[in-house]
Amino acid sequence: MMLGRLLSQFLGLGVCILMLGGVFYGLEKLYFGPRRALPCSQASLPEGRICPQELVDHWRDARNPSHYKVVWVDARSESDYELNHLLGQGNCIFPIRPGANMPRLLDAAIERLIQAERKGECIVVFCTASCSSSEEVAEELRRTDLISAPVFVLEGGWSALREMPYLQD
Q: Highest mean pLDDT: which of 22-31, 56-65, 108-117?
């Protein structure tokens, strides 16, 4: 009788521990797990936007797979750029953001942006996922008659860019 009661209590405690573990697992996945972006579908995006996977599939340099045939334009704020940007990747990147300094920043990059089409490259503008600076900069680049390479805004912004193959630090 005593053994049966002890076994029943032990089994009950085991069930409680399993249930508690399930609750913690669910909370971790829901609130504390990595925030993964939903898969991007190129067909569902408006014209002028590009999925990271589209860049991986179609704009990776076949001769040097650690590079993309992309001229990157970082439209994030100056403080975000200074805090965290792509270094040492061999990829061409220019900080161009809306505001009073935009003409000066554009002038510094214009020669390279003009060469992009001749080199078989596209131009990809990005900022943080919640900012609109990339749209403003991309529109300005499209209005520039000197640039004939395709200009895209990266869907998912900086977060998506950081997850692309070969671009992690």
A: 108-117
Report the CATH number of the 42-162 domain: 3.40.250.10
pLDDT reported for residue 166: 62
Domain boundaries, the chain: 1-33, 42-162
- The answer to whether the CB of 135 falls within 8 A of the CB of 114 is no
Predicted TM-score of the model (pTM): 0.73
- H/E/C letters for each residue in 34-61? CCCCCCCCHHHCCCCEECHHHHHHHCEC
Return the closest-CA partner of residue 99 out of 123, 126, 78, 130.
Answer: 78
Name the strand (E) or helix (H) holding 92: strand 92-95
DSSP state of 133: H
Tell me what the pLDDT averaged over the chain comes to.
82
> What torsion, rounded to 10 degrees, do the Cα atoms 124, 148, 62, 165 define?
0
pLDDT at 38: 62
Using CB atoms within 10 Å of the CB of residue 28, give its burial: 0 to 12 exposed, 13 to 18 middle, 19+ buried.
exposed
CB 93 within 8 A of CB 103: no
- Residues 51 and 153: their CA atoms lie apart, in Å, by 9
Q: Between vectors from CA 121 to CA 120 and to CA 126, what angle results, nearest 5°?
A: 170
